[in-house]
Structure prediction request, 694 residues.
Amino acid sequence: MTTTDERPGDARTSSTSRRLLPLLPMLGHTAGKRSPVTCHLKCADACFHEVPNRSENPTFKDVAETALTRRAVLLGAAAGAGALALAAQVGTAAPASAAARGGRLPFVPIAPVGAAVDDLVVPGGYTWAPIIRWGDPLFSEDDRFDPTTLTAELQERMLGYNADYLDILEHPNGRSAVLVNNHEYTNEAIMFPPATTPEQLAEQRWIGMAAHGMSVVELTRDRKREPWRYVVGAPLNRRITATTPFTVSGPAAGSPLLRTQDDPTGTLVLGTFNNCAGGTTPWGTVLSGEENFQGYFRAEGTPEQARYGLRPDPTTRGWEEVDPRFDARTPGYENEPNRFGWIVEVDPYDPTSTPVKHTMLGRFKHEGATVRIAASGHVVAYMGDDERFEYLYKFVSRDTYRKGDRHREHNKQLLSAGSLYVARFRGDSPVEEITGTGALPSDGMFDGTGEWLPLVLDGVSQVPGFTTDEVLVHTRLAADAVGATKMDRPEDVEPNPRTGRVYVACTNNTARGTGTNEGATEPNPRTRNRNGHVIELTEAGDDPTGTAFGWQILLLCGDPAANPYTYFAGFPPEAVSPISCPDNVAFDGDGTLWVSTDGAPGAIGYCDGLFKVPLEGPERGRVQQFLSVPTGAETCGPVIREQQDMVYVAVQHPGEDGTWGAQQSLFPDYGAEGTVTDDAWGGPRPSVVQVWRD
Ligand code: FEO
Ligand code: CA
Ligand code: CA
Prediction:
């Protein structure tokens, strides 16, 4: 076993402008948010196609009109009680000490950074360095990264592309840790020279499969509060790719809907891909969401498939040209797309374990899943389906969490049996006051109540006309049938470990109120929602296993200098950092919210970043920008360790709009001003980055 020396890269001093490439003109961003290249590669242009949700759920208006009386029934509140009274009734106040103590990690917010700047900017007094980059070897120092000679076999031994979900599982000694990272998708146009032969093209497709999935990597350092180095050849190092075997758990395991000619049992699936966000469980495993799986398959486009956006067109990556299972029109492979779109669970402490796909948590474009243990010991997982007009879900386990489960054998079964719910929201303001601009209604708040509608209870379908395995495989259709609320792309959904309140990042939805699509509703109050919002949800009685909740909008994002209809929990808009397209959420040890963004360049003209948002006391809603990622990139997987003055982020798709011959980023291998490091190869490398206080 060896540890890396200076690799990957030296420490970077904070906040110097490092424009190694000429400033680029603002590229043609899509109306909503991100660059057209990202739309094409990440989501298979989901936003350019018709919204897949054509369901005629009871409209939000129908539901809202009965809101006050229903709220009284649900929560035992007096009809007409004000929003604050309701929140007090169902909420749990944060411990006073949390607000009073404040976090460490003091910083002066950075100014927003123009969308074309190729730099990672951190506050004064902080320094950053990559921990590990795409192509860094996990198993042998002899594996040298060179995009011009890369093979699939080598890529399987290196960190994958486009770092997304991230956690750093620290050993109590503070000197060793395990890093777990998702690799959402690939951008072959900047990863490799253009293929000139069919053989080269085929190899690039297999390399692409090997660059998807997840990585597990051991870290080391000499002292707490120092930057980490990753360990080449460490025992827990592992790559999971688009061809790694997974078992299937839960009620739909073995279902005819999951069987193919290669797997007549419906219980053994090869690979995971488009892994977006995730969550670390209290028992030490990592959950990862399979998101835009539709972009990897050609399919007939049956009604069930169309509800997920599966189409007959050739795919962008053309994997169907090298492996017939990616063409679901091929006899024997019709069900292959049903084997993706799940939450997967990986045990990073057991490199020999077979990762699992959990059917009990439903099949949709899973952003991620985050877990809370209820007072009863039941496990609750919150999940968003990241597409325009899709839904918010939660799972409640049948069995209870067991402390001291040494090999995690009991706890690793918890996500295999239980109940699945989808959310219906009700607003408490008259529908005519929800104008679509974002102007607050007369009660001063976008807020109300809601209920978790059962799809499956204790393993039994609650949806008329659907068997249990049909609910779990065609979850979107089942949720349509019970009248779930159409949301503005719910991405990360995460409970605050200090208060239990749940934060829902609705990243944006520029289709709201257009054409025949649903218009503004109180929980999604802006038509053509470019900037997104964050909802704070409070489970009734602080019981996450229950079915009633209260909610309010915490942030209506945007640049207050350009948009009169932003909202920051009542904090003066002129005193916050502009923020757009909230995507991943995280909490520091004091329960302060941190939000990373994906899409700010197209919406407000600034690079994406990481933002701190206090939730308690007079600073509640004061958005402060901590860092900014390079041109083309989104900020992912924030991990905040304020006790150590350390922050970690995954920098995904830097330089996205470049080409092999005209790269737009050299991230992260910037050297001194105007130079590059010895390690630079001339293009960007998506990386996991650490930021520490000097
Ligand atoms: Fe992969 Fe929903 O972002
Ligand atoms: Ca209201
Ligand atoms: Ca995301």
